Amino acid sequence: MRAALLVAGLLLAGAPLRAQTPGGPPPATAPAAAATTPAAPAAAGPYAALKSEVATAVAAHAPQAPALTERLYRLAPNDERVYTDLMSIYEAESAAPALLAFFNGRLPTAPPTPKAQGYLHLYAGILSMQLGQLVDARPHFVQAKNQLRKVLKPTDPAFRIIQQGLGEGTPRH
User: Fold this and answer.
1) Is the pTM of this model over 0.90?
2) For 28, which DSSP code?
3) Which parts of the chain are beta strand (E)?
4) What is the DSSP letter of 156?
5) Residue pLDDT, tens place only, 35-76
6) Cα–Cα distance for residue pair 161/125, rounded to 1 Å
7) How far is CA 158 from CA 72, 89, 123, 126, 161, in A?
8) d(Cα 26, Cα 7) in Å, to the nearest integer?
9) How far is Cα 168 from Cα 171, in angstroms, rounded to an integer?
10) Main-chain dihedrals φ then ψ at residue 116, nearest 5 degrees
């Protein structure tokens, strides 16, 4: 029950960790972020169009949904907005297991940046919690913390989520 309440509190109706503008491009979080993810800020039109294609494909259970998801992810793997957008799309269609599989499948090939690795683990942990896989969620939250602490301020909301996830994912004896 606590896990369900945690997940509901974390992602109520797909709530992001940061403020976002529906349908807009991933926000540039800092000048350095813009340099590392050039497609994100400049690609408002293409990003929004591809996001819409992903939503349509996921809703239709179309065979091209994973390929479109991959394309959207590859636009800006260091930008949290991509992860929150994908979460919103997949959760709206009750397809969290497919997105968890997608995120887990990207871990070995993701860019070796702390943000890409950290966000993949963070959102895989959140999805694992949503699916009741508390033991599986814990290593994702540990890795998310290790990676994101290299690039985010200690006050970033991601760390509150990680700490809650670590508390919920710990087996009780």
Assistant:
1) no
2) P
3) none
4) S
5) 333 344 444 689 999 999 999 999 999 999 999 999 999 999
6) 10
7) 22, 20, 10, 11, 5
8) 23
9) 8
10) -60, -50
